[in-house]
Amino acid sequence: MPSEVLNAEEHLSLAAVEKLSAAKSEPTWLLEKRRQGWGLFERLPTPDWTRGIRGWWSSPMKGLDFDSLKPYAAAGAVAPTFDFNNAEYGEGNPSGTLIQHNSEVIKAELSEEAKAAGVWFGSLDQAVREKPELVQQYFMTRCVPIDEDRITALHAALWSGGAFLYVPKNVILTAPFQAFFYADEPGLAFFSHTLVVVEKNSSIKIIEEHISPDSETVSLDGGVVEIFVGSGAKAEYYNPQEWGEGFINYTTKRAMIANDGFHRWVVATLGSSSSWLNVESVLEGQGAQAETTGLSFSTGKQHFDVKTRSLHAAPHTNANSLFKAVLDDASQTGFQGAIRVLKPGQNTDSFLEDHTLFLSEASKADALPSLDVDANDVRCSHGATIGMIDAEQIFYLQSRGLDRQQAEKMIVAGFFEDVIARIPLESVRDRMRESIDAKQGGDGSLRVGADDGPMFNFAEEEKIS
Amino acid sequence: MAKELIVKDLHVNVDDKEIIKGVNLTIRQGEVHAIMGPNGSGKSTLSNTIMGHPRYTVTSGDIIFDGKSILDLPADRRARRGLFLAFQYPMSVPGVNVSNFLRTALSSIRKGDAEPEIKPENLDVQGDRPMYEKARLGGDGKNIDRKPKRDMLIKPAEFRKLLNEKLAMLQMDSKFVKRYLNDGFSGGEKKRLEILQMAVLSPKIAFLDEPDSGLDIDAIKVVGTGVQGLRGPDMGIVIITHQQRILSYLKPDFVHVMMNGNIVKEGGPELADLIEERGYGWIREEAGLPEISEETMRKEVEANA
Q1: Which one, out of A137, A204, A418, B234, has a CA that is 20 to 30 A from the CA of B272?
Q2: Which among A91, A212, A445 is the top mutation candidate for probing chain B, defined by the most B β-carbons within 10 Å of its own β-carbon?
Q3: Rounded to whole angstroms, how far apart are CA atoms A106 and A89?
Q4: CA-CA distance, B286 to B274, in Å (whole number)?
Q5: Separation of alpha carbons A321 and A279, rounded Å
Q6: Cβ of B35: how many Cβ atoms within 10 Å?
Q7: How do residues A263-307 score in pLDDT, each as one tens digit?
Q8: DSSP code, position B197
Q9: Is there a contact between A415 and B136 if contact means CB atoms under 8 Å apart?
Q10: Predicted ipTM?
Q11: What is the pTM of this model?
């Protein structure tokens, strides 16, 4: 890869798109796809954030000046390291690790076990060269098409780097894959892309991280995640989003789940100045299952939009979605959750819950769960609760010596605990708790739930009673 | 020397209505007091005010503990000075497990209200296990590690030992402390958990707001004997109740009868027996108070709820 793919003065333009493709020596079909993406970007309207039922807020996208963004930045001299060590949790060395720094993937490693099983894991750029048929078949085709919306179209035009994971059939890997997206070039238009294809009866986990330093300059991550879960296959995707201040995070994540496949989403929205997250499960095969767990914690002036949908397109499909949001300061969240059952989706079970907790009266939230069912033999339900932190709970904890801040931290940690308990990977549970505590000015060490680890192993005390 | 809690001519308003009307009371470490009185007499308001509930406004008078007024202190600082309140209706905090909560609480209480005096040999860094390290940049000093220093908590081993002793003493199952704080607890379990907290935090003066309410005879015995077991020269105990039964397991040194926002009669343990026998009517007459109307009583009960 040439060190300067696009020079620093480049703006978002068709010329930049073509230069980027040429620098990467891409095949014609991909250049065409980029051009189409650019064309759509020029035609489509800028997507709107939710306004709040009362029209409380206007879309942060409106303030985004596309002309001020840089389409490309080289990795730079200072390389980030990825220290998430699953091995220390007894979860094994990672099956693969990929690091993208700005627009370039700087590291892609695959474990011997995964390699021997025929797994392919690396940058999308590299996959275009080495696995062109697979990329052509799965990349921005029927999962997240390039005409999804304006930002996705721009993504199709200017993506760079990216992660591609291909798992052939009958491969079961317990140790997770890790994809780490790191951006430190202010004003960058970043387009993180993760494409995962899991063939029949295989099973994988992938942890995706987004991190950047805080900046006063606006940057954009127009991210896309596409996951194909084959028949009888199992995929788990974990994403603690911790972009720094200055980032507008606009991301679409979608899984297509074949018959008897299972997909798990765990998405935490913690970082960025404003975040628009759309996470969807398309249950397209009979017996497909999806579990979605989402948490968000907004502070300061953060604005988070979370959209989720379970689309039941086949019979005997199950989905279970649980979302929790905590808001502090003058932050805002909009939640739109949908269960959509198409006519063939008979004998479907689908549940959706959303709970919101306010720590401050200046924060605002809208929760709009919805049900739209065309089949006539289904079990579907949705529920939402929303409320201020309980002053009596705070007094109770204060009367035990915890100061107000400690009391609030404990209540928040407890509020998220059942969401976190749904995460099967201990390393990720710990990571989430740490991030939540740190958001409240904690040191990341607060633990309230059952995972006290060895220090609270009460096995020996059982005898006492 | 035994520490004293002195309540001096205390007047308390709730939502602009005067509920406590000039209470005087002195509690010392080592003493057991019972505050009795019918519903709506202001007993719960008194204990909540002493603990520092923000809803209760002290309009005049003072609360002095260990020689200093505590009126301006929030509840947590009163707790760290050695006050405790066992709630009539303990709050549940889902997702927070009892042992973690109590370890944090005890660590705060042990630090005291003065600047913390931390003995390194008693403390450990919580989470002595591998944890995710945020991305780090080397070389140019740019570092996005956002993880600040850790709070210091009591060593797990020390805490576990203490907790086990208290559980055993109160004949409680260790499963208790693995559950979420009061979440899904029965009435009796909640009251016992309050007593466990009191045992672990070992306050200097503890108020127990109707630890017997809603309990059957057997459960009252468990709670009463549990508290009796905690009795000692370092702990002053104030039981708030309107029944005599719990006092048969926990004989008070002093009995105060509260009515209409004030203490109207005081005596020794024999006063509790008299109330059991004859009710409150005669005290009301003696104090020259009018019969309390249903309406007033209901309002006051609501105000205290």
Answers
A1: B234
A2: A445
A3: 26
A4: 14
A5: 11
A6: 27
A7: 999 999 999 999 999 999 999 999 999 999 999 999 999 999 999
A8: H
A9: no
A10: 0.87
A11: 0.86
